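To: structure subgroup
Subject: Chain for Friday's discussion

All,

I'm putting the inputs and outputs inline so they're searchable in the archive.
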Amino acid sequence: MIFFELFYTFFKIGAFTFGGGYAMLPLIQAEVIAKSWIAGDTLINFIAVAESTPGPFAINIATYIGSEMGGSFGVWGSIFGAFCATLGVVMPSFIIILIVAKFFEKFKESKAVKGVMSGLKPAVIGLIAAAVISIGKTVFEPFFVNSINFANPMLWVSVGITVVMGVLAFRKVHPIIIICLSAVVGIVAGFAL
């Protein structure tokens, strides 16, 4: 049944991903697209929406996909699907944090624990880098289908937004300002071009 599959899939994603939402992205892409629950371009669009709405990124995606998949059973199916997927993605972290909180003080000086923590840091960075490359490829791919079309104004708008917002992020401009500026520039460029 779809509700159990939603719970199990997102439980797997939550259980085998360390480092938060961006680190979950490669697993979310692999699982959700492979099951044809959502198309790749729709997922990219929803990532943009999930990043500009309140709440954790992975929970927003799980809730949305659960709602969509349960929607064929009516309003209550949509609500229950969202609940199952959200519970699935949250439950592993909840269980792990309970276990870690109980035993961390006792083992925090252990060489094995320190080794695990130092090993997880580069893995998380690698997963986040994979997500950035994957999303960047999907976002910029339309501009590079056969060859680079330097005459396409949207290419320059996209590159400009990426560069300017990247610079603003490194200059410690508040993320809300960056999100709002990006939205305004994107809307204006969409209407103007």
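Points worth raising on Friday:
The longest helix spans residues 74-107.
The CA atoms of residues 2 and 27 lie 19 Å apart.

D.
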